[in-house]
Design a protein that fits this description.
single chain, 11 strands, 31% helix, 26% strand, alpha/beta
Length: 246
């Protein structure tokens, strides 16, 4: 069944109305009609709902069953990505959502070639948020990852204070013969809930950025002996966390 997210509350008679693009998708794209069933996520709760009636502008549905939310990562993993070139951030958003990411912070790293025009932040973040929504629907998530505006290194340090565990992927660690395995580090976070992981752009993180993060309780991680692309590293880390905790 198709899955849709809505911000509309469930009414007292267990009905809800879905409008906009999702209504158009149900009626015009999927050719749904009264009696068809869909999954609807409202306020992070998943329901099986039956279409009562509707048009491409608004679809009215009634709750048939309340489902258990068992498909979310047991840890809240937030990803920080140094602004990459091209459409790599879109790829990271899509695939990291499928792998269970909780939220994404683009990061204005010193070596980021790409510089966002702040006047276009709203449009760019909205585009990424739409990609996250579609990926969450496709992968049957019960939450949509939050996509934030780009942050500076100072803002990153400040927001990191709210996290239980903080990692920074350092390619220099991957080059050493005595690196600590990421899997071993994850054994120490079973009693933790929120994890923040920072990844650099194509040129990697500047050593001064690494030092500042380490001075603020970050731990370095090495994602194996090979140097991964900026769009591959977050997916590796999420896969490792999923393997350990799911």
């Amino acid at each position: 069944m198709q899955r849709y997210f809505t911000n509309e509350p469930i009414s007292e008679n267990n009905t809800v109305t879905i409008t906009g693009d999702d209504a158009h998708h149900m009626i015009q794209v999927m050719r749904m009609s009264p009696g068809d069933l869909v999954f609807v996520v409202a306020n992070n709760q998943t329901y099986t709902m039956e279409i009562l009636d509707g048009s491409s502008k608004a679809v009215h549905l009634k709750v048939k069953e309340v489902l258990l939310n068992t498909n979310e990562m047991p840890k809240q993993v937030s990803i920080v990505c140094g602004l990459p070139k091209g459409d790599k951030l879109e790829l990271i958003t899509q695939k990291a959502t499928e792998l269970g990411m909780y939220e994404l912070y683009p990061f204005e790293a010193k070596r980021s070639i790409v510089k966002w025009d702040k006047s276009k932040n709203e449009k760019k973040v909205a585009r990424l948020q739409k990609i996250a929504k579609e990926a969450a629907e496709q992968s049957h998530r019960s939450t949509i990852p939050q996509i934030h505006n780009p942050v500076s290194i100072k803002e990153l340090v400040e927001l990191s204070k709210a996290y239980d565990v903080k990692y920074v992927a350092d390619e220099e660690d991957a080059k050493t013969d005595e690196r600590q395995k990421f899997a071993e580090q994850l054994k120490n976070v079973y009693d933790k809930q929120s994890i923040l992981i920072v990844f650099g752009p194509e040129g990697g993180l500047d050593r001064a950025e690494i030092k500042l993060l380490l001075d603020n309780d970050f731990q370095t991680i090495a994602l194996g002996p090979r140097i991964l692309r900026t769009e591959t590293a977050p997916l590796y880390a999420l896969s490792a966390i999923s393997y350990e905790f799911e």
